Amino acid sequence: MKTLDDAWNPRDWETFMKRHAENVALYWPGQPEPTRGRHADHSESVGFFHAVENHIENDPYMILFGQGDHTCSVARWTGTHTGPLKGLDGQIHPATHRKFSLEFCTVARWKNGEIVEEKLFYDLVGFMTQLNLLPKATVTATAQYPSEYRSKAPFLKNPSTIQEKRTLTGENTEHLQWLERSLRDDSFDLGLKDCSKMF
Known about the structure:
By secondary structure, this protein is of the alpha+beta class. It folds into two domains: about 1-130, Nuclear Transport Factor 2, Chain: A; about 135-199. Helix content is about 20%, strand content about 40%. It is built from five helices and twelve strands. Strands 1, 2, 3, 4, 5, 8 and 9 form a seven-stranded mixed sheet that branches. A three-stranded antiparallel sheet has the order 11-10-12, with helices on one face. The longest helix has 14 residues, at about 40-50.
């Protein structure tokens, strides 16, 4: 496993490709289908480096062990957003030049010295938040609700009937979650725009 990350950091793509089987399946967070094939994995990795200069701190790993034909590693992953990157909203975002630091976990299944299946785990929402790429949602709420519900909605200022428009980001998603639950309450008349991705 260490030889793979030793190749990743300096972008030694020849060694990197040799560590993956021809028909490798690679699973990324937020990606519904795996990337299949050594060359597709290589192209995807090169493209990611064009968007995000990054480094896996693997000397030593935070955690590293193997069992049977599997290995598992956890490492500190750091970097900077330096080029166009696709966000959770499906849009391509220009470089923010913001830095990130996360834990990165790789679970790999090996055969004859090559990875045949690789599953990557990291905090995707945390990654996008640190790069300031979380989608923003505008919520317009109109409500009449009993006094016992007021404490649950600290961002709704008028205690009786309110009409408030506010941009919500990942820092206050608990408000969005509360609004979603309130849809089941007949006393709430709520309009949501482009919020489903936030829950």
